[in-house]
Structures are given as C-alpha cells and as structure tokens.
Amino acid sequence: MKKLFILVLSLCATTLFAQNNSWEDPAYIAKNKLPGRATSYSYKSADDALNCDRETSRMISLNGIWKFNFVEKEEDRPLDFYKQDVSDWDDIEVPSNWEMKGYGTPIYVNAGYPFRPELPAEAQKDPITWYKKNYDVPEGLSTEELYRRFYADVASKIVPEPPFITRDNPVGSYVRSFTIPEDWNNKKIVLHFGGVSSAMFVYVNEQKVGYSQGSRLPAEFDITEFVKAGENKVAVQVFRWCDGSYLEDQDHWRMSGIHREVLVMAQPKVAIEDFFVRTRLDANYQDALLQIRPTITRGTGVDTKGWTLEAELYSPQNNRVLQAPITKNVDAIIYEGYPQRDNVYFGLLEEKITGPELWSAENPTLYTVVLSLKDADENVVEARSAKIGFREVETKNGQLYVNGKSIKLYGVNRHDHDHLGGKSLTREDMENDVLLMKRFNFNAVRTSHYPNDPYFYDMCDKYGLYVLDEANIETHGLMGYLTNQSEWHMAFQDRVVRMVERDKNHPSIIGWSLGNESGTGPNHAAAAGWVKDFDPTRFIHYEGAQGQPEHPDYTAYGSDAFRKKGRTANPTDPLWVDVISRMYANLEDLEALAKSPYISRPIMECEYAHAMGNSLGNFQEYWDLMHSYPNLIGGFIWDWIDQGVLTSDENGKEFFAYGGDFGDQPNDNNFCMNGVIASDRTPKPQTWEAKYVMQPVQITAADLENGLVRMLNRFNFDNLNEYKVSWTLNEDATEIQSGVLEGLSLNPGANKVVEIPFAAIKPKANAEYWLRISVQLKEDKNWAKAGHELAKQQFKLPIQTEVTAKEINADNITFDESDEQIVVSGKNFQAVIGKKSGLIESYQQGGKQVITSALKPYFWRPLTDNDERGWKVQQSIAIWKDLPGMLTVKNLNADASSANIAVKLAYKELSLALNYSFTNEGTVNVKFDLAIPEEMPEPIRVGMNMGVSTDLQQMSFYGKGPFENYSDRNGAAEIDIYQGSVDDFYYNYTKPQESSNHTCVRWLALTNNNSGLMVLGETPLQTSVWPYTAENIYEAQHPTELEKADALTVNISHKMAGVGGNDSWSINARPINKYRLLEKAYSYEFKLVPLAKAKDLQQIYRDTK
C-alpha cells in the first residue's frame, strides 16, 4: 500500500484565472500594446527612405548599458523601482540574456517546463532512498527497476499547472535615461522592444505604460503622453516565466531578459502606420501586378483634405520604374468602407509592371517601394520604404512552385544561438548565418520555432533563402491540451497574427508555420483561417495537423496501430494546411507517403536528418529519394548550429557547455548539440557532406574510359553557362592535366552527356588516375566571391595499369621461441607475438619501440549519440565490446622457414584466423579472417587497433579526406594525399565520441622526422588515429576531460557501421541496412611497413602493392 503522498496536480487550475497574477492569466496578454505592423521607419524625405538607412530615420537606439537589478524570486522584486534612485544598481548590456551576464541559471530542456512543480528536495538529491522511504517497495529490485518505478509512481505525475508558475520566478528590473530631440514635438513617439523573455511591465517617467508577453516578437507602446523634449527615463521589469511560457516549450536554451534591440521612434500625427505589399505574376510569370494596401493613422483635430499618398517603385539600381507615381487620396484610404457582404479589394494602390526581374533564392532581385505621404501643399510629411521582390508561390499538382518552377527545399532549422551571446544575436551573427547557409548550398531555412529578428529576414531577402516563418507556439510538455482550450485562443491567435503582420512584406518568406509540436485543435484552425484570408499568397504549414478522424484509414493517436506505423501513420491532414508535413520519417515511410493515393498536397519533412554529434549519415539516400518523387519537396535538417555555450572548467580550460553544465535542473544533457555547424559557427565534417549532397549540379559517370560524364542542372532558373566548369586529372595525388569547359550551356532541369577533353594517358605501374570536375561561380555574388565552388565530383578512371610487385625476401628472419612468446627479429626490427594472446604485442624498429600495445581485434567504438541513445548498441550488441578479451588461442603455428605465424582464435562458435608474414626489412603482412555464427548479433566494426609511440606525431594518408568520413557519409570527401599532425586530423565533438575516421584509405603513415610506421591496405581500409584511449573518449563528457595517452590509438578497420542519420532516439538511429555489418564472414589484409628514413610514401605504396 502506497504511503500517503500526493503529487498529482490538476490541469483544472485554469478555472482560477480571475485570481491570478496578471503574468499568470492567458486572458491578459497585453496592455496598451500597439497592433503588429510591418517593420519600417519614418523618414523625412523620399530620398532618405529610398536609401533604406534607418540611421537617417526618426529613430533613437536604446541599445547599450542599462542599470539592472536581479532577484531569484518574484516576491523579492523591487515594486516601486521606476520611481527610485538606481545609481547603485549593476550595469548590464542591452540587448542580452541576463544568464549570459552572470545572473540566474541558463537551462537547457528539449521538452517540458522548467517551471513546473518540483520534486521534494530529498527526492531530487537521492530519488531511490526517498522513494523507498515514502512508498512500499519490494525488496531485491534492481537499481534500473527502482528508477523505472520511481518515474512511473512519482516523477511522471509531476505535471504542469497552466497558467501558473509553480517555481521561483526570477525577475530582472532595467532602468535607463534617454533624450527626446526638440524637433520631435508634435510627433507620435513609439517605444519599441524587439524581443523580451518572457513578460514585461513598462514604465516611462515613473508612470506605468503597459504590459507585454510573447518572447520573440516586438512590443510597441505609444509613449507620446509620457515623454517630453529632453531627458526621460524608461524602466522595465521582466519576469522569466509567465503564462505565455506554456506556449514557448521549444528545444533550446531557456534564457531571459531584453534580448533584442530597443528603439524609440517618432512619426507624424498623420502617418503611414503600416502597409502590405503583394506582387502577383500573370499566367506566364512574365508581368506583374504591384498591389499596396496602406494603413494611415490620423491624430484628432487634423484635417487631411487634399492629402495624398504616393507610391514609387525603384529598380535594384535605384532607378524609377514607373512613368508616374501611383497616387491615392488619403481620405479615401482612411474612410474606406467595408461592404455588408464580400470584402474590399486588396489593392488600394496598384500598377501593372511589365517584365520585372523576379525574386528567387537563386536570383534574389530586390526592388524598393517608397511611400510618400504629402499634405495639401504637396509637402512630404513622411516617407517609408520596403525592399520587395516580384515572385509567385503556389502549391499545385502535389508540388511547390516559385515563379512557375517546381522547387525543392534544401533547408535547415535554425534557432537563435550564439556561443557567447546565448539567445541574443548581433546583426553580424545573423548575416553570417545566412552567408554560411548560402555557401553550403542551403536554399531554405525554417525559423524554428519562433519568429526571428527582422534583420535575419532582410538578409534572407538580400542573399536569397526561402523562409518558412514559424509562430512562437510550442506546447510540447502539454502536447495538444492548450490548442483545445478556448481560454487560450487569444494567446494563440495573437502570436500568429503579429508574426504575419510584422513579416508580410518579405519576399523570402514563402510559407507561414503555425508553430511546432502543440497538438491540433480549434486554436490552430482559427489561426489558419485568419492567415488564409489575410495572405493567400503563401502556403500554410503545421506539422502537428495530422490525421482526419473521418478518413476511412485514420489511425488514432496513441493506439497500438499508431505506434506500429509511427509518424507517417495517417494518410492525410486537415484541409487548413497546404502541405503534408512530417518529422523524421525514415526512407521507407517517406516513400510510402510519396506513393499514397490519398495525398494530393506537397510533402515535406519539416525536421529530418537529426545531426546530433557524429551523424548525418545516409543523407545522400534521403535526397536520392526526394529527387525521385516530384511531390517530395524537401525538408529542413535538424538543426543549424550546436547550441554550446562557451565556458571554462575549474582549471580555466574553455569548453562548450550543454544541459546540466550550469547545474540547471531539469536538463536534457547534450541533446542541444544537433548542429550542422559547430557552436562557434565553424564547419563540422557533416557540413561538407550536406553541401555535397545538396549541390545544384549533379555529375555522374557516363563513359569514363572515353571521358564522358552526364551533367544534370538542378538549378531552377540559371543556365549552367552562368558558371565556370573546370576539371583536373590527377595521377594519384599529382595533377597532370587540367582545363575549363568553355561555352557549356545547360538549361535549368536539363541534363546531357559532356566530354572532358583530357589527353591520352601513359599509365604508370600501380598508379591510379582521378578525374575531378568542379562547378564554380564565374563572377562575384553578394554572398561569395568568384571561384567559390558549388558542386564537384571525383571519379576514378578505368585505366588499366601494370601491376608490379617487389620481390619479398625473408631469408634473414630469426624466430626465438619461448613458452610465453615468439620474438621475430630481422636486420633492424624486432616483433613479439604473445602465445597466450596470439597477437603482435610489441614492435621495435632501430631499437625504438614503435608498436607499444598489442595489435588486437577491435569490434567496437566510443559510442556516438546515435549508437547510444537510439540504436542502444550497449544493450543490443554489447558482446562485441569485450569480445577481444574473451578470445582464446586454439592453435598457433610458427614457421621460421617462411617467416610466417598462423593463429586461430575463438570464442564459442566464433572464429578468427590471424596470419603474420615478415620480410627482411621488417614489413609485417597481416591477414584477418573472421567467421561469425548465425546467432550472434552484428558487430559495429570489423578490424584491429594498436598503440603506437607518441613520438610519431606527423600523420599522412592516401584516402578520403581531409575531414573525417564514414561509409554512409563520405560523398564529399575526396581521395588525395593529406598531411598534418595527429591533432590536426582529430575532430573533437562537443561530447566526445567516435570520430576522425577516414574511408578508402590506401595507406596511412605516422612519422617523426625520418622514421615511423606505415600501414598499407591490400584493399582500401578505414583508419583513424586518436591521441586518446577509446575508453577516455567514451567516458569524457567534454573535450577538456580528454587526456593524452601514453600511446597513439591507431585503428585499422576493414569495415565499420555508418553513423546513421535519421534520428537519435529510436531504432531508426541505427544506420540503414546497406551501412550495417550484416555479413557473417569478413576477410582483409594489410601491411605494417617500418620507415627508417625519409622516402616517397606513395612510391613505397606502389612498390609494395
């Protein structure tokens, strides 16, 4: 019988709203907050507006140093601080997150509310002891079972209580002064906050102005009546959590404060308050209709008779496009009537534009619309402007079209994140993100899972990215509960409407997303209805809108059938979404969707290819499938950047922190490390693979013997003649020919066979010949310089070369055998083979120890996140981790006359044959033959490893590089000879794990000046060199915990499982079958060659091969 201990909390608490604090009431989302509007600035002249330099507008920035007070509990906050002297308060930079400035605790949670009720302190400290004390628990249960029961009986019942904040709620109070210019008299003054987490009360000159919540959109207040010319004071009190935080349960760092810019803006009493620009193309996508719907506000007592609004359109070169401005009487705009039935016509100002240059991600041509408000004497009272693009977005025929072309979205999900600034980014950070995306062949970005700063969209407009703009709604920890509660309707609607109103004029935005992982219900449906009517020029997306219960093949969520079918269970979605969106569908399920007879809408993966740790395997297979079906329109990788926060350990060593590193509770550990790029915005190995797979020109072999390749132009709008196509021909790693394909013309979407005009080759013995084709920018673009490579392909030419083999001599080898070992000696080397182990336990060359720990079988790796979290190899195939130590010698045959030792090892029914052959020069030929019984699970690696002297710090190899690569992620890597230090080739993941592998390796050399060791494969190998032990790599939580070992770990693998790339939490995290080791027999062969002096390593390879 369970002891009396009540932890179950009721969701019915929402009936108590009337008694709530104002920041705990979903009906109280704002006070005196102005309606959402498009981002624009008030200029004094049309010329200023045309230049789009907001520094010349009626604007003052309040970014900079503010006075700041922080308390951990809301009840400790200063109540009348806006009236007090705060000169002794701390200084804080605005914008920023206060957690990044040393106040409070950053919290990383994937899903679940950090402010939900807490476990008792004793339960947090020692859950099992507390559980046994308070519950009747049977004796003899395992620790794992105790934790399972603790979760089921206790932790799982600690549920959130919307709209209440049931933990201590930190509060930050901000104060600063600012100056209103004299010439702002008789102007409307607006105080603008770009983003504040999560709720704030605003005061100006000791008077309460208003309240706002919603962390990722602007809050604007009319402060005209509160300010005066000269010095003024603004005060803001920010609550870390509020009822709105229940709608902000996104997978990212939970940080607080004024994290986006703060501005004071002025505009005339009669002003262009807002405007919406649409561009509609004709049926041939040639001519356009420019439509503008302005909103004019007018102060009381102002006569606007005879006033006009003029619209001018300027080309990308700032030349006037229209023969005359489009003009509209201001009173006709202000007094526009709305009919009893039907609705008003959208284009209050409109003009046909003949043959405009169109905007697309490939060619982001921007025009400028300038609106001028003129009084009766034709004086300009105010001017505003916007960069616009002429483009048409359509969903039809199960596809997504831009300007009449069916496009694919090579996208990525992006969180606001900086390793130094947290959730507060500079304009430079935002621009760098867009430039990096362009340079790595992304053409789309999803603003997961909230609207970004307006400047980010400006950069997408400018450089060319398709944007899926997402509302700041995620109720992951409550699933679909809130979208089905009418009292939360206003909060849902407000977030969607304000996003659309602010961002409506950006040509880069092609779709609106209603949020993420928040279930489905009337609150979402209502928001979709508003968006569909307000903006029919873009599609609506919401992945949570899955299934129609009335459909004959509907599968109920949570049912056994649903769990079996997974994320692609239901064949169609509510009609208020325009695309079918899924997350993390594996290849089979994605193809089933593409073939479904019930689906007529385009299909996208709004999240896929979970790039956690060492991941992004089988990305090529995803895109092979996407290209096979027109209705698969692409997707967005999860996600853009590792969300590491730069910090230091107790020894001052810097590292990137993740969940739990700040003592944050709850936390989800390193689940925030999913980026295609690293936390400091440097490329990771998988970044290059993503670029390769998404490259806009596909090059495949046609008839390589005769220099023929097939080129497919995947651009939607550009002919290939706008780019430079060059080629090089290498003999091994030496360039012997090169050229440029002049005049190559290939229309978008077309393909043809192209001849590469290399001259006849006189092949050398044992050489390989590599043809490399490169597609580069012919001229500078605003996002990259001429010469930037967009696409590439390397081919091995099928050239028959003479195969020669150097004569092997073993007549000067001696065997010295004892009960424990066999010592094999030659002119300048000595190897020791242990009789008990059957392994080469050491190897000396020139009296120096080269192999310092045994060359032994190796079937494991320091587990990747996908291995451990999803595939769970530590449970399913754990036998292979310890198997080398369980092998016993069944037979050892040493033949001194042939300098050969044959060993047979076994574990139960598994057998492993190792054969060592020695030459006079000290070369050891190793043969490896493994037979796995049917009942044994698959290994994760088949190979050997050894410890090598740390004196050998220089590394060279002939194989795929320069960055690490794996069997399911090696398309971008190229075969060449690479040189550097061991550390140069070791890639540090934020949470250490398997890394630094290279595939297709012909040889690997470790050297120190003139001596060293070379590994040569009879067939291509997979190799890696670690300065650390495998155990250290696996156990370390951060790179600062890695300790240089007393030997280099050298892995010589025949095969290794891929890294996977579907997700990181289910069996789908396992590599797809073609990259698993499912065979039951493996054989390979390699040589260990001592290096006594400087030599041409490639020549050694040719001679030895």
Q: How would you characterize the overall build of this protein?
A:
14% of the residues lie in helices and 34% in strands. It has 1105 residues and is an alpha+beta fold. The protein folds into five domains: 11-31 and 64-118 and 158-260, Jelly Rolls; 268-393, Immunoglobulin-like (Sandwich); 408-691, Glycosidases (TIM Barrel); 699-796, Immunoglobulin-like; 814-1104, Distorted Sandwich (Beta-galactosidase, Chain A, domain 5). The strands form twelve sheets. The protein has a 16-stranded antiparallel β-sheet that branches. An eight-stranded parallel β-sheet has the order 30-29-28-27-26-33-32-31. A hairpin with a 2-residue loop joins strand 23 and strand 24. Helix 6 packs parallel to helix 7 (454-463). It is globular, with a radius of gyration of 33 Å.
Concise account of the structure shown:
With 1105 residues, the protein is of the alpha+beta class. The protein has 18 helices and 58 strands.
Tags for this entry?
Jelly Rolls; 58 strands; alpha+beta; TIM Barrel; B-gal_small/dom_5; globular; Immunoglobulin-like; 16-stranded antiparallel beta sheet; single chain
- What is the mean pLDDT? 95
Helix fraction bin = 10-25%
CATH class label of the largest domain: Mainly Beta
Sketch the major β-sheet.
16 strands, antiparallel
Overall strand count? 58
Explain the layout of strands and helices.
Blueprint: E1 30-31, H1 46-51, E2 59-61, E3 64-71, E4 90-94, E5 107-109, H2 121-125, H3 127-134, H4 143-153, E6 171-180, E7 187-193, E8 196-197, E9 199-204, E10 207-213, E11 219-222, E12 230-239, E13 252-254, E14 257-258, E15 262-268, E16 270-281, E17 288-298, E18 308-314, E19 326-329, H5 330-334, E20 349-353, E21 367-374, E22 380-388, E23 393-396, E24 399-402, E25 405-406, E26 409-413, H6 427-439, E27 444-446, H7 454-463, E28 466-470, H8 489-503, E29 509-513, H9 522-534, E30 539-541, H10 560-565, E31 580-583, H11 587-595, E32 603-608, H12 619-628, E33 632-637, E34 645-648, E35 654-657, H13 685-693, E36 697-703, E37 708-713, E38 723-731, E39 734-740, E40 751-755, E41 769-777, E42 789-796, E43 814-817, E44 821-825, E45 829-834, E46 840-845, E47 848-858, H14 865-871, H15 873-876, H16 879-886, E48 888-895, E49 900-907, E50 910-918, E51 924-931, E52 941-948, E53 954-961, E54 974-981, E55 998-1008, E56 1011-1026, H17 1030-1035, E57 1048-1056, E58 1081-1091, H18 1097-1104
Parallel strand pairs: 26-27, 26-33, 27-28, 28-29, 29-30, 31-32, 32-33
Antiparallel strand pairs: 1-10, 2-15, 3-4, 3-6, 5-13, 6-12, 7-11, 7-15, 8-14, 9-10, 9-12, 16-17, 17-20, 18-19, 18-21, 21-22, 23-24, 24-25, 34-35, 36-37, 37-40, 38-39, 38-41, 41-42, 43-44, 44-45, 45-46, 46-47, 47-52, 48-49, 49-50, 50-51, 51-58, 52-57, 53-54, 53-55, 55-56, 56-57, 56-58
Helix pairs in contact: 6-7, 8-9
